[in-house]
Each structure stands twice: as structure tokens, then as C-alpha cells.
Amino acid sequence: MIPLYLDPARARIALIGRGTLALRRLQWLIGGGAAPDVWSDAPSLELEQAAGAALRHTLPERRALSAYQAIWIADLPRDEADVIASQAREGNVLVNVEDVPALCDFHTPAVLRRGKLVLSAGTGGASPAVARAARERLEAAFPEAWAPALDAIAASRANLRAEGANFDALVDDARTRLAQHGLI
Hints:
Elements: E1 13-17, H1 20-31, E2 37-39, H2 45-51, E3 55-56, H3 62-65, E4 70-74, H4 78-90, E5 94-97, E6 110-114, E7 117-121, H5 128-141, H6 146-162, H7 167-180
Parallel strand pairs: 1-2, 1-4, 2-3, 4-5
Antiparallel strand pairs: 6-7
Helix pairs in contact: 1-2, 6-7
């Protein structure tokens, strides 16, 4: 596996699904800053409410899929998910089919967010429960204090770069500030 962080401001993202898993994935995507298009021919009431104006009350046709860079599919029977995933791949779109590793081009990790600090744990689809347990360990190791510390470090980094500081000076400053916040 090659871990990547996708910038939702630069990538078109879609979610295709119907129920609880689709709702959970929508909340996860929104938590990461995405505003995905949501396609569902039979959305649960909760999914419909959460998706709001982003909801399209149908499943996408082949030509619509190529507009995206990444698609998550959840709560569809395997045969339906397989067809949509195949059509998306024909348009060079990366696909994740929830809980079906054989149909996934990428896997969704368990994520911990501390402001701009994003930590993730993944198992390549082998065991989402293990990824979740790892995330829970990360939660204990990285308290909320990391968010304001990172903001302060980012501001300092911008100032130091403007002054022409080299890489080693940036690293030293970051480590000093983490120590001042009691994080290392």
C-alpha cells in the first residue's frame, strides 16, 4: 500500500450508496473537508438529510463517473457495486467499495484529526477493526493540544521561510515549539 492524503479542494469526489455505511462514509468525507456529490436511487432518510443539495436521486450512468477522481461505493449489492466500479475504472477513476477489498483501488484508513494534523492507520482492507484499534492508540498518544501547537509552528515556519531559514532551522524550531507545548 502507498498512503496518500487527497486534497478535496483539488479532486472531484463522489459517494454512491444507500444506507448506514454510505452515511458513515459521507460523514467521514465531510470531516476531511470534502463536499462529495452523492448518488443514491434509494437513500435512507438520514443519508438524504446529510447529503442535502449534493444528493442526486439516481445511480450514476457510465459517462457521469469519469467526472470524478475518486469514488466511494457503500451499501450496494456486490453485483451492482462491481458494475459501477468497473465502469468508473474504464474512465480512469479510483474506486473504493466499502468492505469489498477485491473491488478497491484504494482503502479508507481510520483517521485521527488534530486540527491540520491528520494521522491515519490502515490495513489495506485486511481488518478495519485493527485499523480502528490503532487509531484509538493514536488518540491517546496525540491529544487535542497538537492542533494549536501545529498552528503556532505553521505560523513560525512561514515567518522563518520569509527570512530565508534553511530546512534544519525549520526542523529545530518545530521541535522546540513541540517541547514548549509539552508534546515531545
